From TrEMBL, chain A:
HAMAP family: PdxS (MF_01824). Signal peptide: none annotated. D-glyceraldehyde 3-phosphate binds at R166. This is Pyridoxal 5'-phosphate synthase subunit PdxS. GO terms for molecular function: pyridoxal 5'-phosphate synthase (glutamine hydrolysing) activity.
UniProtKB/TrEMBL annotation, chain B:
Belongs to the glutaminase PdxT/SNO family. The active site is at C77, H167, E169. This is Pyridoxal 5'-phosphate synthase subunit PdxT. It catalyses: aldehydo-D-ribose 5-phosphate + D-glyceraldehyde 3-phosphate + L-glutamine = pyridoxal 5'-phosphate + L-glutamate + phosphate + 3 H2O + H(+); L-glutamine + H2O = L-glutamate + NH4(+). Its EC number is 4.3.3.6, 3.5.1.2. The keyword Lipid biosynthesis does not apply. GO terms for cellular component: cytosol; glutaminase complex.
């Protein structure tokens, strides 16, 4: 029997197994274990969470491989890691280390201001950020096996993630409602590959899983994104910048699963301590907006 | 016929679609009380560690264990781990299927693969998608091995319980789901 690795089915399938779950940013083995014990479906191994990247300034790069390795050794759930946009070698290094998923991420300083990675050439699957369907479809065209909204990372402010998820979903609905002879012009207008729009039209949804990311700070934020149609949630700074990360992690996991059980959400939101301090988006200078990165 | 899918996390909608395609009614199960009305239950693929935590949060383990004692249950991938009587390196979960499961037995995601398998009584060439898959390291007497991959047991049946390492919900081939619903759920095997 032939054996096929790195196929679309295997890469997109991996993301399907994450559905309904919470993926948490962690910077060491101890945090990874807290995330796993709380019920995270995966962890994202990083050198700094996005809010600390904001605070530190300078160039943000792929994490030190020792941190990634430490996290991989600490947990049995999948481990993701971030590579800079267009940084072929960071991505290949993470793939060689055996990480389960790579995030080609705008949270890090881009290595290429014109081109993204050709993700179809890798065995490891990729997740990428998007703000609208054009961006989502371009990333799928390059081979991304999973999407997430960009939101505005490290702010603890959900407004941008809501904007991006609503936008993508409204544009998907419009494509599904179109006649096939209208799709080429729509592809031109969105800057999207025609084939991806055709697949959306035929399947009635995006061909890959789409998570929410970039600003989730409370259990209610996570449930809101599920309510708006996200397949799951990334929580970056929201957990380990909260007053009580263990309780916060457990509560966000439960609120994501039972996102329409409002009594439960009220219950798990009690006595979990203070969430991370947020940032009003309008206070960010143009150059501080990570969501603008990506092309 | 009503077949439930444990809907806490994972490939829930894919399984529900497959159940409907086999002509049965599919029900998303998020609470223990919902099990009472079911003729069979699917434990979907997902992250087994997270799924176990969510089972505990919802206090569903006693109800799931009771159900699996005499009603048909089909566990795929993470569901296989939940069903196994013994799980290497950790405590068992629902623990009703007489076998030993080994987590992530085929490696990490870069080792995940597609292949075709012969499944006894089901198909000569079943498209099987293995994603960070577990394997069945051993089975006890009386457990039927339905499929192997390069010598590893990847599908088995123990009385009213069925488990596979791979993801039948990710392909259009409904023969294994049909086998579960028609051969195992309609008889309502009770010990």
């Amino acid at each position: 029997m032939s054996i096929l690795t790195g196929s679309d089915v295997v890469k997109r399938g991996m993301a399907l197994m994450q559905k309904g779950g919470v993926i948490m940013d962690v910077v060491n083995a101890e945090q990874a274990k807290i995330a796993e014990a709380a019920g995270a479906v995966a962890v994202m191994a990083l050198e700094r969470v996005p809010s600390d990247i904001r605070a530190a300034g300078g160039v943000a790069r792929m994490a030190d491989p020792r941190i990634v390795e430490e996290v991989m050794n600490a947990v049995s759930i999948p481990v993701m890691a971030k590579a800079r946009i267009g940084h072929i070698v960071e991505a290949r290094v993470l793939e060689a280390m055996g990480v389960d998923y790579i995030d080609e991420s705008e949270v890090l300083t881009p290595a290429d201001e014109e081109f993204h990675l050709l993700k179809s050439q890798y065995t490891v699957p990729f997740v990428c950020g998007c703000r609208d369907l054009g961006e989502a479809a371009r990333r799928i065209g390059e081979g991304a096996a999973m999407l997430r909204t960009k939101g505005e990372p490290g702010t603890g402010n959900i407004v941008e993630a809501v904007r991006h998820l609503r936008k993508v979903n409204a544009q998907v609905r419009a494509v599904v409602a179109m006649n096939e002879d209208e799709l080429m012009t729509e592809a031109k207008n969105l800057g999207a590959p025609y084939e991806v729009l055709l697949a959306i039209k035929r399947e009635g949804r995006l061909p890959v899983v789409n998570f929410a990311a970039g600003g989730v700070a409370t259990p209610a934020d996570a449930a809101l994104m599920m309510e708006l149609g996200a397949d799951g949630v990334f929580v970056g700074s929201g957990i380990f910048k909260a007053e009580n990360p263990e309780k916060f992690a457990r509560s966000i996991v439960q609120a994501t699963t039972h996102y329409q059980d409002y009594e439960l959400i009220a219950d798990v939101s009690k006595q979990i301590g203070t969430p991370m301090k947020g940032i009003e988006i309008r206070q960010l200078a143009q150059g501080e907006r990570m969501q603008e990165r990506g092309w | 016929m009503k077949i439930g899918v444990l809907a806490l996390q994972g490939a829930v909608t894919e399984h529900m679609k497959a159940i409907k395609a086999c002509g049965a009614q599919s029900i998303a199960v998020k609470q223990g009380e919902q099990l009472k009305e079911l003729d069979g239950l699917l434990l979907p693929g997902g992250e087994s560690t997270a799924m176990r935590r969510l089972i505990d949060y919802a206090q569903m383990l006693p109800a799931l264990t009771e159900f699996a004692k005499n009603k048909p249950v089909f566990g795929t991938c993470a569901g296989l781990i939940l069903l196994a009587e013994t799980v290497e390196g950790e405590e068992a979960h629902i623990g009703q299927m007489r076998m030993t499961a080994r987590r992530n037995a085929f490696g990490r995601q870069v080792d995940s693969f597609e292949t075709e398998l012969a499944i006894e009584g089901v198909s000569d060439s079943f498209p099987a998608v293995f994603i960070r898959a577990p394997k069945i390291a051993a089975v006890e007497n009386g457990v039927e091995v339905l499929a192997t991959h390069e010598g590893d047991i990847v599908c088995a049946k123990d009385r009213h319980l069925l488990a596979c390492s791979f993801h039948p919900e990710l392909t259009g081939d409904r023969s294994l789901m049909k086998y579960f619903i028609e051969k195992m759920c309609s008889k309502q095997t009770v010990n």
